[in-house]
């Protein structure tokens, strides 16, 4: 009886593996075609400054406009991209797109809101990353400081020696580096001191339970104080309610990003937001963009 159960589970397991593999192989030409046919979209999510209550930048977030399945979020296709070794192709596409937008904004608005781009582990560890970024800023004639590079805590810490050297080079060239999903990795806060980063992004998991979980508030308070002590700015992601905003502001958080202010949006919408700020001097009120 138990042996039969065992056999059954082995068969099931193998078939599961096969399906997964087949699925991955099926995805390869589809994803390559998606790059060729330009099916990816860069969405931008606004970031706001607590002190000045104003727009202070954007995060670039990829979407896939699938011909049959509609608009897909990263969780639905990034795992395939990673497993198929296409992360560099994707990151290069995103960087190029972001640089294009920055050039256009500088020409149109005579001002440039920084765009933060998420770097995959593969891209961050790529031996030609520095050269690639250097030629990108030259080609598009943008200031390196307008491009912020988000690296997750786990990636930054996975090879601390190499990571530190890459981040140092990026800083020396004028790029801003932010540590994404901060607090979810296993790094010691002391490591933060040695990393020449400009910003930490507090992970949404801390923000989510802020109202009910006092421990999270205590941890956050310590994190923010430490970051400030080291001269780094702090942004919180995933703010959905006014209460979360209030608590984060009290804890000394510098910047915020979340559905409470605005969701990730198409570039044209982000530009309307910029125009509203510029032309009417209208400050985007928290919550007023939630439906955009
Ligand atoms: P992330 O870099 O931590 O991005 C923040 C995620 O939180 C985004 O999900 C964003 O849409 C979502 N978010 C923002 N505000 C709120 C909120 O108030 N509530 C909730 N529930 N979520 C909020 P998204 O766009 O699905 O991206 C997921 C992850 O995929 C990103 O996490 C990032 O790790 C990765 N990713 C996205 N775009 C890119 C890209 O262009 N390149 C690379 N390499 N990775 C990307
Ligand atoms: Mg990010
Ligand atoms: Mg994040
Ligand atoms: Mg996150």
From TrEMBL:
Domain EAL: 24-278
Name listed for the protein in its UniProt record: Diguanylate cyclase/phosphodiesterase
Organism, as annotated: Idiomarina aquatica
């Amino acid at each position: 009886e138990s042996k039969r159960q065992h056999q059954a589970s082995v068969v099931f397991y193998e078939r599961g593996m096969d399906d997964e593999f087949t699925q991955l192989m099926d995805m390869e030409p589809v994803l390559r075609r998606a790059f060729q046919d330009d099916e990816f979209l860069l969405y931008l999510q606004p970031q706001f400054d607590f002190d000045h209550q104003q727009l202070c930048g954007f995060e670039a977030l990829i979407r896939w406009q699938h011909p049959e399945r509609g608009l897909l979020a990263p969780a639905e296709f990034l795992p395939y991209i990673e497993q198929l070794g296409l992360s560099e192709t994707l990151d290069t596409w995103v960087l190029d797109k972001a640089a294009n937008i920055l050039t256009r904004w500088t020409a149109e608005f005579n001002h440039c809101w920084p765009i933060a781009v998420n770097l995959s582990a593969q891209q961050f560890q790529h031996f030609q990353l520095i050269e690639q970024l250097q030629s990108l800023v030259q080609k598009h004639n943008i200031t390196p400081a307008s491009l912020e590079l988000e690296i997750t805590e786990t990636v930054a810490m996975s090879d601390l020696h190499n990571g530190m050297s890459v981040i140092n080079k990026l800083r020396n060239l004028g790029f801003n580096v932010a540590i994404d999903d901060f607090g979810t990795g296993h790094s010691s806060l002391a490591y933060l001191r040695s990393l020449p980063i400009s910003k930490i992004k507090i992970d949404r998991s801390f923000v989510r339970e802020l109202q009910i979980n006092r421990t999270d508030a205590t941890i956050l308070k310590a994190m923010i104080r430490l970051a400030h002590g080291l001269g780094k700015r702090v942004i919180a992601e995933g703010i959905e309610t006014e209460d979360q905003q209030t608590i984060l502001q009290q804890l000394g958080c510098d910047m915020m990003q979340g559905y409470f202010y605005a969701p990730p949006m198409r570039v044209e919408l982000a530009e309307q937001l910029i125009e509203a700020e510029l032309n009417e001097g209208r400050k985007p009120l928290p919550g007023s963009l939630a439906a955009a």
